TrEMBL record:
Disordered: region residues: 567-587
PROSITE patterns: IG_LIKE
Protein name from the UniProt record: Peroxidasin homolog
Organism of provenance: Acanthaster planci (Crown-of-thorns starfish)
TM ranges: none
Keyword Signal: yes
Length: 610
């Protein structure tokens, strides 16, 4: 009885397997021009065979779980690409070992449940295999496909080390990102064949050890990317670009060996988001052109901070902790063409800091704390074309700085504290001859007669974001270029004061205050009777002399006339005179009780005075 039941279940299992693996017919969308059969999202559990002339077949988003040689043999001899993504496939051996799909170049089986990948391969034309988002947990050899160029196995379940010994060929593109690989070794003692230069992507693993060694054959890596790992030891051939970002590294000479052969020289190095507080060029980085060092722990740039990087043309130092850049810090970087110092804590620069950067084309110092731009900051930047200073604390801009950079095409002053950007000066317009983009969005612009030239210029050279006015009130919130000439007016100042006569007693202190109206907002100054500006309008009177709070005095006579003067860009002034009269303090009589020897009291009158 038991034997009969076993036989019955075996037959049922075989029937199910035959049913699942048998070729079937399905209604797909077929494009005769491109030869593409779109069989996706049709709830299929089999391979439709009624499109034998297909060049491309999309079987993604179905319920296929088993692949058999009979599913493809003698059926899809012309097939070039097949997509089996988002199914329930757990084994691709039968497909990989098929010998009757000689035209297949691309195989994609992403988002399945594949656990094991065998190295056997009968697909002689296969160039690209994508196994992302499966459950593969080990790899000892790459599939032995004669023409395999691209191998991708991102987001699988590799949890240990990968040690590969390569015999004849190596895919020129290898991606195994987002796994839990702990070490990665590739070795060979045989000549290797590569269709292209090697690209190796191992980001987002737990790798501490990377070792790539070869003999007798030149491998020229284009890119080796090892970011987001735990690197302690690296031994690799020099790639054109090496990325070792986000590894907690403290020095470039600690555990990193990059060996060079013939003319294979590294050009680009990315060490962002590590723990470097100094960057000294190691021997293996000679000839480096581009350095990304954003997000490290650099506090100051001195003459030794960037020692040895004499060939750099592009330097990224954003998001560090920079407070100072010493005058000689960049002197050896004479070939620099792009410099990025964004998101630091710079409050000022030393004069002549860019004196040796005659070839610099782009300078970005956004999101720092600069409040003043001195012309000597920009000595040596005669070739500069793009200047980015957004997100600082700039209150005004000295037009003289632009004379030092006549080739500027782009200036970004957005998100600062600029009230005005006056380019009505004809000489300044000549300096801006090459300028095509000026960004001022996010500044508290005062849109009065001083902004007429800027409005006209922006109409012909619109920025990426049009700036808006903050004042005067009638123009608040309006886009600058939407204003008419009548909106950009200036009104003469009008001085106003509550009291124009002050009577004070010697010894008292008076504060002179007033208000003034006008567009633009007037500047108010106080003048004493001698015409000297009063720095602080607070006056103290002692012994019939009026003393300013700064230590000087106004006059020696009883009456002083202080003048309030209000002026603005309109070219007119308005004055208001305040008379200050000083009086002697009143005489005071007081009785003093004096005690004599006989404990008797007598009343004595005394006169108080000066």
């Amino acid at each position: 009885m038991a034997m009969a039941l076993f036989t019955f279940l075996l037959c049922i299992g075989a029937s199910i397997r035959i049913a699942q693996s048998s070729p079937c017919h399905a209604q797909c969308t077929y494009d005769r021009v491109t030869g593409k059969a779109d069989c996706s999202s049709r709830n299929l559990d089999c391979i439709p065979v009624n499109y034998p002339d297909s060049l491309v077949m999309d079987l993604s988003h179905n319920n296929i779980s088993i692949l058999e040689p009979a599913d493809f043999n003698r059926t899809f001899t012309r097939l070039v690409e097949i997509y089996l993504d988002y199914n329930n496939i757990y084994d691709v051996t039968s497909l990989m070992t098929s010998t009757e799909m000689g035209s297949l170049k691309k195989l994609s089986v992403q988002h399945n449940v594949i656990v094991h990948l065998d190295y056997s391969c009968g697909l002689d034309s296969l160039e690209d295999i994508s196994l992302d988002n499966n459950m593969i947990n080990s790899l000892y050899e790459f599939p032995h496909c004669q023409r395999l160029r691209r191998f991708s196995a991102d987001s699988n379940e590799f949890q240990h080390g990968i040690s590969l010994f390569v015999f004849d060929s190596l895919p020129s593109f290898i991606s195994m990102r987002f796994n839990r690989i702990t070490y990665f070794h590739i070795g060979t003692h045989f000549p290797l064949f590569l269709f292209e230069n090697l690209t190796l992507l191992l980001n987002h693993n737990e790798i501490s050890d990377v070792h790539i060694e070869y003999h007798w054959h030149q491998i020229n890596p284009t890119l080796i990317s090892l970011s987001y790992n735990r690197l302690q030891y690296v031994y690799v051939p020099a790639p054109n670009e090496l990325i070792i970002a986000n590894n907690g590294l403290r020095g470039l000479n600690i555990g990193i060996w990059v060996y060079q052969r013939e003319n294979n020289i590294m050009r680009k190095l990315d060490v962002r988001s590590n723990s470097f507080d100094c960057l000294i060029q190691p021997d293996w980085a000679e000839g480096l052109l581009i350095l990304h060092a954003n997000g490290n722990l650099l506090r100051n740039l001195s003459s030794t901070t960037l020692q040895g990087f004499v060939n750099l043309t592009e330097l990224h130092l954003a998001n560090n902790r920079l407070l100072f850049i010493y005058p000689t810090a960049l002197h050896q970087l004479t070939l620099l063409r792009s410099l990025y110092l964004d998101d630091n804590a710079l409050t000022s620069l030393f004069g002549g800091v860019f004196l040796n950067q005659a070839d610099l084309l782009e300078l970005s110092i956004t999101n720092n704390q600069l409040s003043v731009l001195h012309p000597d900051y920009f000595f040596g930047l005669g070739s500069l074309e793009r200047l980015y200073l957004a997100g600082n604390r700039l209150l005004d801009v000295n037009p003289e700085i632009f004379r030092l950079m006549p080739g500027l095409t782009t200036i970004d002053f957005s998100q600062n504290d600029l009230n005005i950007f006056d380019i009505t000066d004809s000489n300044l317009l000549e300096i801006f001859g090459a300028l095509s983009r000026l960004e001022l969005e996010g500044n508290p612009l005062q849109c009065d007669c001083r902004l007429t030239g800027l409005r006209d210029w922006l109409l012909n050279n619109p920025p990426s974001t049009l700036p808006r006015c903050q004042g005067p009130p009638k123009n608040s919130g309006t886009v600058v270029t939407d204003l008419g000439i009548h909106d950009l007016s200036c009104n003469p100042p009008k001085a106003m004061i509550k009291k124009n006569h002050l009577n004070l007693t010697v010894g008292q202190t008076a504060t002179l205050s007033c208000t003034a109206t006008g567009i633009p907002i007037p500047n108010i100054t106080w003048l004493d009777p001698n015409g000297t500006m009063i720095q602080k309008p607070t006056v103290s009177f002692h012994h019939r002399k009026a003393y300013h709070s700064d230590g000087g005095y106004v006059n020696k006579v009883n009456d002083d006339q202080c003048v309030e003067s209000a002026a603005n860009r309109s070219g007119r002034e308005d004055d208001y005179e305040v008379t200050v009269r000083t009086n002697d303090p009143p005489q005071v009589y007081q009785e003093l009780a004096l005690q004599n020897k006989d404990d008797e009291y007598e009343s004595v009158s005394g006169r108080g005075g000066q």
